[in-house]
Write a structure and sequence with these properties.
two-stranded antiparallel ribbon; about 180 residues; globular; tt1808, chain A; alpha+beta
Length: about 180
């Protein structure tokens, strides 16, 4: 990491975020956004409720550390097997994670589809589930490959809201019937 990166990380870690907002560090840039809306929160909760708690930690508002990246994203939901990481600390290391979930908003489309997809692949997170209430679909990315900004997932599976979304890395099939759109 460069000196500039270290200063940005230090600034980010001391940043006081106004109530109702959240901030993420994405490839050296501090991104601030308004808090999520009702549709977003209901979708995240519906996903978390379908992942067995006896085997998996399902955490919201959890920052993650991605090795080799000047990034500390806060996915909408992080999932890791019990025992893979026991803390302490603010950051869960990406290698401990099995799945990250992002729910697209009108202002996060590019970040979620492009920037975070590449970051999570660079962190070797086995699965990235992108839920898009603007398009009414779920996209599951698996098999991360590559390094840095060139990293990507080799496999992409898309289902429409209302159809089950198999998430093999967790051994579940998510029901999406109750997912609402933002249109």
């Amino acid at each position: 990491m460069t000196v500039v990166d270290d200063r940005v990380i230090e600034l980010f870690e001391r940043l006081e975020v106004p109530e109702g907002y959240k901030a993420e560090l994405l490839r050296g840039e501090i991104v601030m956004m308004a808090g999520p809306d009702w549709v977003h929160n209901v979708i995240v909760q519906a996903v978390a409720d379908q992942i067995p708690a006896d085997r998996w930690h399902r955490l919201q508002t959890q920052d993650i550390a991605i090795p080799g990246e000047a990034s500390e994203p806060e996915p909408d939901l992080v999932v890791h097997e019990r025992g893979a990481f026991e803390g302490p600390g603010r950051l869960v290391p990406a290698p401990a994670l099995t799945l990250v979930v992002e729910v697209v908003s009108r202002t996060s489309v590019d970040r979620d589809y492009r920037v975070k997809r590449s970051m999570y692949a660079a962190g070797r997170i086995p699965a990235y589930l992108l839920i898009d209430p603007l398009a009414g679909r779920c996209v599951l990315f698996t098999e991360p490959a590559g390094e840095g900004e060139a990293a990507d997932y080799r496999v992409e599976r898309t289902t429409k809201f209302g159809e089950p979304m198999p998430v093999d890395v967790l051994g579940v099939s998510l029901e999406t019937v109750e997912f609402r759109t933002l249109t």
